[in-house]
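quick one
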Amino acid sequence: MAEVRSIGVVGLGAMGAGIAQVAIEAGYDVVGREVSADLCDVAAARIEHFLGRKVEKGQLEAADRDAAVGRLRTTTALDDLAGCDLVIEAIVEELAAKQELFAALEDVCGPDTVLASNTSALSVTEIAAATHAPERVIGMHFFNPAPLMPLVEIVRAELSSDEAFETGFTVAERMGKAPVRCHDTPGFVVNRILIPLLNDCIRVLDEARVSPEDLDTAMTKGAGWPMGPCTLVDLVGIDVHVHASEALYEKLREPRMAAPPRLVAMRNAGLLGRKSGRGFYRYGDAPGA
Ligand SMILES: NC(=O)c1ccc[n+]([C@@H]2O[C@H](COP(=O)([O-])OP(=O)(O)OC[C@H]3O[C@@H](n4cnc5c(N)ncnc54)[C@H](O)[C@@H]3O)[C@@H](O)[C@H]2O)c1
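structure w/ nicotinamide-adenine-dinucleotide:
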């Protein structure tokens, strides 16, 4: 298994910027690719901000912050990823866009570069089908926010090679993460379990006529959850949760996967949870808070 020294991250949005941060902190040279110079600058500033906060909190030495920032390069040119040993894709969750990118990456990168997707709900096997060498394609599913959440699901697609799969696992370990190995099935491990479970919780709101506060109390005090389901869905974003439910339902056709109508209505009404100021709960200075 070739040693990974340099990592490409394509898409420096919520997930990609976090993954790039984790990678430079772990000592990797990182080339981050965005679609515009402005988005490159926003992502780089964001990463520097979070590393600066770690210095303020005494979690990181200033010299280590400077060294980590020095390992990050951003670009709009895909060709700049040519020298990377591993490329992690974190662009929009659309199959056609990801397939187009993987086909282009195959032309740009050397034959030994492992290509990983951070997709949450698409099939890694279908993404890999756009390449001539699908054995080099794996899933590396980080959780949000990537710098804080320890889990990474390392996903073996239908034709992934052992070498590519183990490379993803080894890199995630070196990033200080807790990787788990799994196969390419809808929702992988956590979302396959968590999405229908949260949907059940929301249905119970109506069935048992329990309040969101009491449902959260029930699950934290009775089941030992660290956070109640309504608080969690508000944190994830009701739009994000509904989207993930719809994607899983489309693939599995299990009724529990389908988004409860109450959540769909909240999404349509702009009640998106913490990020919009109001979901099951009110946040910040949202109207009526
Ligand atoms: N947000 C989450 O909670 C979460 C968790 C795990 C996995 N994911 C997955 O991670 C991926 C990214 O999600 P996100 O929330 O970071 O999205 P996001 O919208 O915050 O970021 C996506 C970024 O990709 C950029 N982009 C689009 N096409 C590009 C291209 N061809 N080259 C370079 N950059 C490009 C966009 O400009 C944008 O900045 C998706 O596949 C998503 O399903 C998201």
